[in-house]
Amino acid sequence: MSRSIGGMRSFSTAASSLLADATAASQSIRQPSSFQVFRDVPQLRQLRRQLLQKDRTVGFVPTMGALHEGHLSLIREAARENTDIFVSIYVNPTQFGVTEDLSSYPRTWDSDVAKLEELNKELAQTEATAGPETGKGRITAIFAPTSKVMYPGLPPSSEIEGHGSFVTITPLSSKLEGGSRPVFFRGVATVCMKLFNATTPDRVYFGQKDVQQTVIIKRMVQDFLVGTEVRIVDTAREEDGLAMSSRNVYLGARRRAVGLTVYRSLKAAADAYQSGKTSRADILGAAHGEAQRVISEQQVLSPSERSLFQVDYISLADPDTLDELEIVNPTKGGVLSTAFKMAPLEETKPNEDCGLGDGQVAVRLIDNLILQPRA
Amino acid sequence: MSRSIGGMRSFSTAASSLLADATAASQSIRQPSSFQVFRDVPQLRQLRRQLLQKDRTVGFVPTMGALHEGHLSLIREAARENTDIFVSIYVNPTQFGVTEDLSSYPRTWDSDVAKLEELNKELAQTEATAGPETGKGRITAIFAPTSKVMYPGLPPSSEIEGHGSFVTITPLSSKLEGGSRPVFFRGVATVCMKLFNATTPDRVYFGQKDVQQTVIIKRMVQDFLVGTEVRIVDTAREEDGLAMSSRNVYLGARRRAVGLTVYRSLKAAADAYQSGKTSRADILGAAHGEAQRVISEQQVLSPSERSLFQVDYISLADPDTLDELEIVNPTKGGVLSTAFKMAPLEETKPNEDCGLGDGQVAVRLIDNLILQPRA
């Protein structure tokens, strides 16, 4: 899914939150004007079949709501390649661990729908001004299922040894982000298989931002002979390079500025590769050097001025297997990826912009850059 | 899959047998006349799409080849409900455990194709004599993929902790047959998800004979929102009641006669239920009594006259969860199922019909009866 939660944790099981999830979603349904909303599968299948028989094409963008510019860029890309776009909005319980707070995940139905309606207007405008080849597609359907629709059998388990019906992709799922979140990619693969079966899209769209997710979904589509094409869309970034993320709203100005180190560290490593380096030591050394420089700078500042963070990992990995690389094969390239944990602010100043949660929410930032094969 | 192997066991890993599998299949491909054979997915998808756009319907019958009357009855049923029938012939490595001999599984391509061609003639004949409503469908496509097509990623593992891309349905997969074959239903669910994705059928057909498989496939289709209907077809039986099975050819006359006890034991239990009994003790007591009676009869015969067997299990279970039942709820019914292990013949007589393998192959026979809800 195009967004994952971090930082906020409290005890809650996925199963016990299902009811709250379904209730919250059904209360807040508002019918939009330029697309249909489907809460169950049969009617959606009927629409899909009609489109197929009319030789129309469907691009599918799965989300957990809380839509931001990154999601919209996926939809714009889908509009270039398909006549119809299906967007799903579903907060999937099985990708949350038992210690992660599913119930506090933001539900922003009305603003999500408003953004999608706005985007449909923009797509019509683009077509009117730039011609039908540039933006022919429109959002046709929102699939916003209840958890009873998505998990009709047993309540799904969030424990790694728990029972249920799952898609497992190993060992990919246990690397990188999967190291600290053992059920996460099982949940992602499982819900995506369900969503793909419900929507049977010609193409599915995922953001490069969640690189491990892109590798796992491509593997799943290949291994399970899923009849769809996987499109990966470049990470949407702020002007200075910070990757867009739903979590950025928790940063505030001070942590926002220091958090850019995530991108700068990766960029330093990518520059090393571009300049001809191929060894892990040289490439990751550049990233760690940049991160360490900023950590040292911050440590000497006062608690009301600084923003401390920890590097969770910086990885240099094979693009297909995500195995760590000692040497990059320049004909194949690699994936640089990282996770930083931005600590809560120690002291805040009067009127300081501390972001949602007043700077007290730890924020895990992830980002990645692809090392393209060199000619 | 509509057939599973038993009895013959020797050491072989699924992965090491893949090459042999693919080679054997490609050597023996003979092009039939009344349907197309597909060895890869893209062309099959193209045909499927054309059929969809012409509003034709596809019934899918997955098999591991070695076709017998049971498979043909599935296809006849598919012909009543669909215009086109896809049959897959693929011996799936991931449902064989590391100690089960995948490489010795029978490959009978030419005779399988001949049977399917014969059946297409019969279906045309049926329509000509009985009208289009009774047998309008024809076998249109055989999907006979290589293992490279079915498992394009890592070589699939046959170890329970092994790596790969799998569909897991728990706890259903570990009950009954899954107790002694821990990877079996993971392999079945995984290959069926792939086959369903490759063929996207309107309906899929499975035999009641493999009852646990039917329960798991129904659960998989429900839980993963697979857009197909699951049809379960009554077990094809010989006149005296013995369930048809590819393994029956290993029995020979003597073990064939005694092997009927499998069916008779279940029938005794079903009769007890029909006469009003609902307790496990009463219902299964009838089955065990019948089996024990025959065991005692056989034990007093000489080694050249008798056929010994062991009861692996006799189960009385809930039809959805396969949990063992102490009491049958008459409004819900239950599933009676059993596995017997027919020992090799101890001594044979001159000119005795001992079946394939001269009576030396241990044969595991399974069967089941559904206890229907009582009015």
TrEMBL record, chains A, B:
Leading EC class: ligase
GO molecular function: ATP binding; pantoate-beta-alanine ligase activity
The reaction(s) this protein catalyses: (R)-pantoate + beta-alanine + ATP = (R)-pantothenate + AMP + diphosphate + H(+)
UniProt EC number: 6.3.2.1
The UniProt record lists the keyword Nucleus: no
Gene Ontology biological process terms in this record: pantothenate biosynthetic process
InterPro entries: Pantoate_ligase (IPR003721), Pantoate_ligase_C (IPR042176), Rossmann-like_a/b/a_fold (IPR014729)
Pathway info: Cofactor biosynthesis; (R)-pantothenate biosynthesis; (R)-pantothenate from (R)-pantoate and beta-alanine: step 1/1
Name this polypeptide is given: Pantoate--beta-alanine ligase
